[in-house]
Write a structure and sequence with these properties.
heterotrimer, A mainly alpha (308), B mainly alpha (305), C alpha/beta (326), A: 308 residues, mainly alpha, MetI-like fold, B: 305 residues, 77% helix
Chain lengths: 308, 305, 326
């Protein structure tokens, strides 16, 4: 019945009747689409550069980020007439090299992003999967919890909690991790609800698979796509929030080179030396932009129908 | 419709109460409040005196109920730091925040909705791409960076607008732009997607087949349906703005509710912090309730169910 | 002069894999007051054909034709504002899904009156009167009350009647009904068809009825055009085509229908083997040949229409051979 005719050239050859498409593995299909997605490529490249720079900070930084030198305060960056090559991006109010602080600051931002998402991701995913899979009372309770969490003014509560815990890197990570799980929960819940009603889950239940087994082996792998997208976007969210907290003085404490803190410390000089806040701000924007591009790109490539 | 309203109201009230519990216990989890109030150099006797003075020796549940009972009568006690009652402090600061939030919301809607509609109508063209890129880039800029940037550009370099404070209407321009900026991508994308979905609906095809002009099709038929979720989102975004204004108020030195909260947090002024969290959360819950009702009202299928 | 004249209509849709030839060189005409039924399965291009006449194709689709005229006026080169004057006014369309074809946010009355007032300068009360008159004519009782109702408050059958009333608001010369009964209960289908038929007679309209249901065709059509894979494979007066189906596809379709009284119980229903071909790329020859029992290598070559009768022709070069077997 099926006619596998020879060569098809849409421009010149006769039309095909009944040809089965060639088989391609999902991974190569994914890579093929990924390669064509401009945003994803740009975002991933920038992110890679930042990650490498952060990891190699000890090698790349020309100076010790904590070394103060009051004789060399507020030297402008290299594109200024007064700039020097010794401090390519200038120095801050305590004479510390900006480039070095920027590189080490990248570590802090990335660390916060990754760890926060790890914590909030686990919390949110557990809540979401349970709510979506078990439904009924469990779902009602968990949805109520999510709604309550959504009603809290996040910035305010984060500030208050960070202050209580004492401003510190660990404190910020824990506070943000315990607060930012809502999107994870919402997304995994709806993804799980869609899958939980499919036939193969019913089949797994019918043959007596234990619930944890179903949750881990059947459901989790299938919501992984959505999960990764949310994780990247929440990472950006966490980084922005930490920058805001540190800017307000209640996040990471000096002398750590958090970019938000650098902006706060530079605020008083911004009228005359705009670069003091400009340099870390630009770095922050680039990092967040890159992460967002990667997140959006991943979503477009894996499930374009979920584009919001 | 009535049944739906009542149901949403009950949910809203219970969420508000739950939030109040969270707000209350959040601060009490930090350890001994009496010690923080007394200060690091206090003696145990002084700490004990403070504990009794503020009723901190009672069981937590009792303290909570007492606090809640007074809170619904707008009695939040006295500020630890400011020489004033919490209520009058909040009352004096809240107008600034509400004004800021309202202007920010209007600005962001005025920009985001037309942009979203344009992007949907010209779907796939350069206009669409520009709008989407604008939204992606917009979301990457932290609000405080934008605020600072705006100050540098408009206040310092161009000297058009004041740097800080909240006394005249001019003082609200830059902060509103900075605060409203963050909501634009979300609202724009929702408008765009709503419009796209609606534009591909069968009833739009019917409208075209009737020979209606494109303007009528878009504004009368499409927008009316697409705008429903946007209205709900706008109400929610207003809530976010009220909560997130803390950063903008800090950047622009505007003495609103957020600024007050910041000062209070930095100084361990618990009554103020608790009150602000509760009030903001309640406003937010009220807004989402309002959003649900508006949503239902605008859709005849729910309104006349 | 025919009311609607279509010659060699082609609709192409560019896809990432090549150009999809959705409709290839379709020709037919409709006289005043005549009913033409276009029959075919899903994917045969019949809906696209009707959308092409009204210039309502999706943006990506491209149409071209040797001739496409309505009342003598060329539609192909007509500018959009002029097209809008025709749509809903001189030619109206009824769609398949009554559940979603009406705007849920506005009342029935609003949508009905809008159909009239965008073409004729009449006052609200006149428009309202006409709406009530038409609602009653399509068999909806309590029309005045219905005007204030929203679409979701009506059943599917009622909504389709409203759609029909809406199409008639300007008393068009041509109605195109794209599968108007497919989404409805079987019991309602007959009523709606009857209604369309009566209204057509009363208003003196021509109708193009698009359907995949041959039973529908037999009852109401004057002419039939059978479409397969974007081309018309047989066309002619309804009676002639039913009595002497000459294309293997048409015969296959008729064989699938059990006839009460004639088909013996237990007889396996006829089915046409195979499936629709891929329409991407250049098409040559008969698209049906892979499913046809009479196909020969010649069928891959140039196709032409062979006349059977005065107005009945068929796009099959094996007609004679079939007759021998039939």
């Amino acid at each position: 019945m099926s006619n596998i005719a020879p060569s098809i050239d849409p421009a010149t050859g006769p039309a095909q009747f009944d040809v089965a498409p060639a088989r391609r593995s999902p991974l190569s299909a994914f890579l093929r689409r990924a390669r064509r997605h401009g945003g994803l490529i740009i975002g991933a490249s920038v992110l890679l550069v930042i990650i490498v720079a952060a990891l190699a900070a000890p090698l790349l930084a020309p100076h010790d980020p904590y070394a103060q030198n009051l004789a060399q305060r507020l030297i402008p960056p290299i594109w200024h007439p007064k700039g020097t090559w010794e401090h390519v991006l200038g120095t801050d109010k305590l004479g510390r090299d900006y480039l070095s602080r920027l590189l080490y600051g990248a570590r802090i931002s990335l660390l916060i992003g990754v760890l926060t998402v790890a914590i909030s991701g686990v919390i949110g995913t557990v809540v979401g999967i349970c709510a979506g899979y078990f439904g009924g009372r469990v779902d009602a309770v968990l949805s109520y919890v999510i709604t309550t969490r959504l009603a809290l003014p996040v910035v305010l509560v984060a500030l208050a909690s960070a202050a209580l815990v004492g401003g510190s890197l660990e404190g910020v990570i824990i506070v943000l991790g315990l607060l930012l799980w809502d999107r994870f929960a919402v997304v995994t819940r709806s993804a799980t609800q869609q899958i939980a009603r499919t036939d193969y889950i019913a089949a797994a239940q019918a043959i007596g698979c234990s619930t944890p087994r179903i949750l881990f082996m059947e459901i989790l792998p299938n919501i992984l796509n959505a999960l990764i997208v949310v994780a990247t976007l929440e990472m950006a969210h966490a980084i922005l929030l930490e920058a805001a907290l540190s800017f307000l003085g209640l996040g990471v404490q000096p002398p750590l080179p958090s970019w938000g803190l650098m902006i706060a410390e530079g605020k008083q000089y911004m009228f005359f030396s705009a670069w003091v806040i400009g340099v870390p701000a630009t770095a922050l924007i680039f990092l967040v932009l890159a992460i967002n591009l990667v997140g959006d790109g991943l979503r477009d490539v894996t499930a374009p129908e979920n584009r919001t | 419709m009535l049944a739906y309203t009542i149901q949403r109201l009950i949910v809203a009230l219970s969420v508000a109460i739950t939030v109040s519990i969270v707000a209350f216990f959040l601060l009490h989890l930090s350890g001994d409040i009496a010690v923080s109030i007394a200060g690091p150099e206090s003696t145990p006797a002084q700490v004990e005196q403070i504990r009794q003075q503020f009723g901190l020796d009672r069981p937590l549940v009792v303290q909570y109920l007492d606090w809640l009972w007074k809170a619904v009568r707008f009695d939040f006690g006295n500020s630890f730091y400011f020489r004033d009652t919490v209520v009058s402090l909040i009352a004096s600061r809240i107008p600034v925040t509400l004004t800021l939030g309202a202007i920010s919301l209007c600005l962001s809607l005025l920009v985001a909705v037309p942009l979203g509609v344009l992007a949907a109508v010209y779907n796939g063209t350069i206009i669409d791409r520009l709008a989407l890129s604008f939204s992606v880039i917009g979301q990457a800029i932290p609000t405080f960076c934008l605020g600072l940037g705006l100050i540098i550009l408009f206040s310092v370099t161009l000297r058009w607008l004041p740097v800080s404070g909240a006394s005249t209407w001019k003082h609200y321009i830059l902060p509103s732009i900075a605060l409203g900026w963050y909501a634009v991508p979300a609202v724009m994308r929702l408008s765009r997607n709503g419009m796209l979905e609606v534009l591909s609906a069968d009833y739009i095809r019917t409208a075209r087949a009737k020979g209606l002009s494109p303007r009528v099709v878009i504004f009368k038929h499409a927008l009316r349906n697409a705008i429903i979720p946007v209205v709900a989102l706008a109400a929610v975004q207003f809530g976010f703005m009220l909560g997130g204004s803390i950063v903008i108020e800090a950047v622009f030195s505007m003495h609103g509710l957020g600024y007050l909260a910041w000062e209070a947090i930095a100084r361990n002024d618990f009554p103020v912090v608790q009150a602000v969290v509760l009030i903001l959360a309640t406003i937010y819950v009220g807004l989402t309730f309002l959003a649900d009702i508006i949503n239902a009202f605008l859709d005849p299928r729910i309104r006349l169910a | 002069m025919a009311l609607l004249d279509v010659q060699d209509l082609v609709i192409d849709i560019p896809t990432p894999n090549g150009v999809l030839h959705a409709v290839s060189e379709v020709s037919f005409s409709v006289e005043r007051g005549e009913t033409l039924a276009i029959v075919g399965e899903s994917g045969s291009g019949k809906s696209l054909t009707s959308l092409a006449i009204m210039d309502l194709l999706p943006r990506v689709a491209k149409r071209r034709a040797a001739r496409l005229t309505f009342e003598g006026t060329d539609l192909l080169s007509m500018a959009e504002p002029q097209m809008r004057k025709l749509r809903g006014n001189r030619m109206a369309m009824i769609f398949q899904e009554p559940m979603t074809s009406l705007n849920p946010a506005y009342t029935i009355g609003n949508q009905l009156m809008e159909a009239l007032r965008c073409h004729e300068d009449v006052g609200a009360d006149k428009a309202r009167a006409r709406a009530i008159e038409l609602l009653e004519r399509v068999g909806i009782a309590g029309a005045e009350r219905r005007l204030l109702q929203y679409p979701h408050q009506l059943s599917g059958g009622l909504r389709q009647r409203v759609m029909i009333a809406m199409a008639l608001m300007c008393k068009p010369d041509l109605i195109i009904a794209d599968e108007p009964t497919t989404a409805l209960d079987v019991t309602i289908q007959a009523q709606i068809l009857r209604l369309l038929h009566d209204l057509k007679k009363e208003f003196g309209m021509a109708m193009i009825l698009i359907t995949h249901d041959l039973g529908v065709v037999a009852r109401v059509a004057d002419k039939v055009a059978v479409m397969y894979a974007g081309a018309i494979v047989e066309r002619g007066p309804a009676r002639a085509v039913f009595k002497a189906p000459s294309h293997p596809y048409t015969r296959g379709l008729l064989n699938c229908i059990p006839v009460p009284g004639r088909t013996a119980p237990g007889t396996p229903l006829g089915a046409i083997r195979g499936q629709l071909p891929n329409l991407i790329g250049r098409l040559e020859g008969c698209a049906f040949r892979d499913r046809c029992d009479f196909a020969t290598p010649e069928c891959a070559g140039q196709m032409r229409y062979i006349p059977i009768d005065a107005s009945h022709d068929v796009r099959c070069i094996r007609v004679e051979a079939q007759k021998a077997v039939a």
